[in-house]
């Protein structure tokens, strides 16, 4: 009988906002290498996530877009490379739109992003062990 992947969780990513689960340490290390490792750009010296370096390097190409879209909300310093990212930011941060609700009964927590809700549900915060201690 094959055991479903989530029944064999032995490691999870502790990077802020991630909480992805893995069946072993080797898979976790591969995930960290591909998703959370930083690389220094040889052109401008900024640190970039390994998974984003190709996109970042395109900004240095001739005709590449270095122009970023600034959030217009007073006091907000966020900038974005895509209008869709700006729209999502405005909905989540400034309008506090949280359409994703935790599926666990009695929780009711709401989230602006689906992946954050998914990480919350997988985090184990709803797992409660009911143990009775019987003197032996």
TrEMBL record:
Main localization of the protein?
Answer: nucleus
> One of this protein's GO BP terms?
regulation of transcription by RNA polymerase II
Residues forming the C2H2-type domain are 69-99
The organism of origin for this protein: Rosa chinensis (China rose)
Localisation: Nucleus
Query: Which keywords, in A-to-Z order, does the entry hold?
Result: Metal-binding, Nucleus, Transcription, Transcription regulation, Zinc, Zinc-finger
One GO molecular function term of this record is: DNA-binding transcription factor activity
Q: What is this protein called?
A: Putative transcription factor C2H2 family
Q: Which GO terms describe its cellular component?
A: nucleolus
């Amino acid at each position: 009988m094959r055991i479903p992947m989530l029944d064999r969780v032995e490691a999870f990513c502790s990077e802020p906002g991630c909480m992805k689960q893995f069946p072993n340490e080797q898979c976790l290390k591969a995930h960290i290498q591909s998703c959370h490792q930083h690389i220094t750009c040889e052109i401008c010296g900024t640190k970039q996530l390994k998974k984003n370096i190709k996109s970042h390097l395109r900004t240095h190409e001739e005709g590449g877009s270095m122009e970023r879209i600034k959030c217009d909300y007073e006091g907000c310093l966020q900038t974005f490379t895509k209008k869709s990212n700006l729209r999502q930011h405005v909905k989540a941060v400034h309008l506090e739109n949280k359409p994703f609700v935790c599926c666990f009964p009695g929780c009711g927590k709401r989230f602006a992003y689906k992946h954050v809700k998914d990480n919350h549900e997988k985090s184990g915060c709803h797992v409660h062990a009911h143990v009775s201690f019987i003197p032996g």
